Amino acid sequence: MQAFIALLRAVNVGGTGKLPMAELKIMCEAAGFNSVQTYIASGNVVFQSAKSESQVKAVLDVGLSAYFGKPAGVLVRTAAEMAAVLAGNPFVKMPGNLTHAIFLDKPPAADALDSCSGKANEQIQLGLREIYAYYPDGAGQSKLKIPAAKTGTARNMNTVAKLAEMAAAL
User: What DSSP letter does each residue of 105-169 carry, written as one string?
Assistant: First the structure.
């Protein structure tokens, strides 16, 4: 069994995509996942499964689509991948609550940051299947638009660290 972290996109944020974490846990257990734990209400779930990453994603896509009545975004990482995201943070000296990893399904193109707009004093850098962003004034105040991140989902580095810790403990 391998430990996985699933990150749901646009769940319980801004009044959209309401999904109680208790229901997410039940959905994951019904899918056959083991040791299911949720973390904060923004759609983070850690579990074990014998399925592959793509199989886990497919199962969650079906369950979430049925729950919401429309497709819902979910990104999946193994425990090792989440640890690598944390270790790969290029802004490690910056506050974890102001530094984000934007998770993507596939590696961003080498020129993915060329099309960004609204950049002020933010710093951005490509990762493997992530884009790292440091928002010195907070993400909520930023006008930065990253087109390559449109279908991704962001977590601050404090959350990434906690999810990596939870997955490693499984």
Answer: SSPPPTTGGGG-BS-SS-EEEE-SSEEEEE-TT-GGG---B-GGGTT-EEEEHHHHHHHHHHHHT
Q: Kindly state the average pLDDT of the residues 89-102.
A: 98
pLDDT digits (tens, 9 = 90+) for 1-50: 999 999 998 665 555 578 888 889 999 999 999 999 999 988 899 999 99
Q: What angle do CA 23, 46, 18 make, to 5 degrees?
A: 35
Instruction: List, in order, residues 6 or more apart from 131 with CB less than 8 Å away.
Output: 101, 102, 104, 108, 112, 113, 124, 125, 146, 148, 149, 152
CATH assignment at residue 53: 3.30.70.1280
Question: Residue 113 and residue 5: Cα distance in Å, rounded?
Answer: 26
Give the C-alpha separation, 54 to 75, whole Å.
10
Mean pLDDT of the chain: 93
Rounded Cα distance between 27 and 33, Å, is: 9
DSSP 51: S
Domain that holds residue 90: 81-168
Same domain, 89 and 67: no
pLDDT digit string, tens, across residues 100-111? 999 999 999 999
Residue 6, beta-bridge partner list: 45, 76
